[in-house]
Design goal:
Distance between the termini: 65 Å
CATH topology of the largest domain: D-Maltodextrin-Binding Protein, domain 2
Number of strands: 11
CATH class of the largest domain: Alpha Beta
Radius of gyration: 23 Å
Number of helices: 11
Order of helices and strands: HEHEHEHEEHEHEHEHEEHHEH
Helix content: 40-55%
Largest sheet: 6 strands, mixed
Oligomer: single chain
CATH superfamily of the largest domain: Bordetella uptake gene, domain 1
Length: 326
């Protein structure tokens, strides 16, 4: 009797486990059965929006369902981020996020986010921005070494940047500490203002996204000294990275696909497999090249620990800079 009782208990437990797993398997098998929305936490027309729309178009061809982009901007990208973090984890509301939306807790000195990185599930990294340090083509500055030497000779150097606590600004802090020189921000707030300031001679060096200066480089007006990326970019393979030059990269400026934290792993894998196919397509790669956007794919297994590393590095940097109130 005891043996039969144990056997019955085991059968009952197995049945319960199977019943619990069936919805997940059936979700993955039939997914998607309706339109998918990809939330972008910035206004339409920017690099992130354009990349998300290219990804959505390619996904539509694979899943036989419409994939639409919804722009939810504001609050340091956390309005869009929270829309995904609080969405039903069924795979029909996804996000296309930069680091600011992916790990909002590290930017708590600037704003308070209603969610954290723990509320999101990273699926795939798709692309990366390529911030660059650049000068006018007729400038005597021909390398980052020249930038350091000019700063040393002049007692400091003003560099045009998008603003303090942005990626190039952080790299400048690390450069200045390593080389023992003074590098200061001239915060213009964005590429559309930094580029004219550089061309007009208001600053000798500017930190600008490569996509914004590609045409000026091709026209012989701008020379790029280095890019703020993990690897050299396909758009300009002869330009060194700051890492190659011996300067730390506080984080990688990646753009990736996310879901709510409870998104079934089977659905996340399905989406990651599709992204892997899309980034290998000549059509998608060509579209990215036409927009001067760097394809930088990472699968879930690589992307998740990379974001943890970036979060920890940013936390350490901002702590060292005294950005957090005690």
């Amino acid at each position: 009797m005891r043996r039969n009782s144990v056997r019955a208990t085991l059968f009952a437990l197995a049945a319960l486990w199977l019943a619990a797993m069936l919805p997940l398997h059936s979700l993955a098998a039939g997914y998607p059965e309706k339109s998918i929305t990809i939330v972008v936490p910035y206004p339409a027309g920017g690099v992130m929006d354009l990349t998300a729309r290219a990804l959505a178009d390619s996904l539509t061809a694979y899943v036989s369902q419409s994939v639409v982009v919804l722009n939810k901007s504001g609050a340091g990208a956390t309005i869009g981020g929270n829309a995904v973090a609080t969405a039903d984890p069924d795979g029909y509301t996804l996000g296309f996020f930069p680091v600011a939306a992916a790990v909002p807790e590290v930017f708590r000195f600037a704003y308070s986010a209603p969610y954290s990185s723990r509320d999101l599930k990273p699926i795939s990294a798709v692309a990366a921005t390529a911030m660059s340090f650049a000068v006018k083509a007729d400038s005597p500055i021909r390398s980052m070494k020249d930038v350091v030497e000019l700063a040393r000779k002049s007692g400091g150097l003003l560099i045009g940047t998008p603003g303090k606590q942005t990626l190039p600004s952080m790299i400048m802090v690390k450069m200045a500490a390593k080389e023992g020189v003074k590098l200061e921000d001239a915060p213009f707030g964005g590429d559309s203002k930094t580029l004219p300031a550089l061309l007009g001679g208001h600053v000798e060096v500017g930190a600008i996204d490569f996509a914004a200066i590609k045409s000026s480089v091709e026209a012989g007006k701008i020379r790029v000294l280095a890019v703020c990326t993990e690897k050299r970019i396909d758009l300009a393979p002869d330009i060194p990275t700051v890492l190659e030059l011996g300067y730390e990269l506080p984080y990688v400026s990646s753009l990736g696909l996310f879901g709510p934290k409870d998104l079934p792993e089977s659905v996340a894998r399905r989406l990651d497999e599709l992204v892997s196919k899309i980034v290998s397509e000549p059509k998608f790669a060509g579209r990215m090249k036409d927009m001067s956007i760097q394809v930088a794919y990472k699968d879930s297994a690589s992307y998740r620990p990379a974001l943890v590393r970036d979060r920890d590095n940013l936390e350490a940097f901002f702590t060292q800079q005294g950005m957090y109130k005690k």
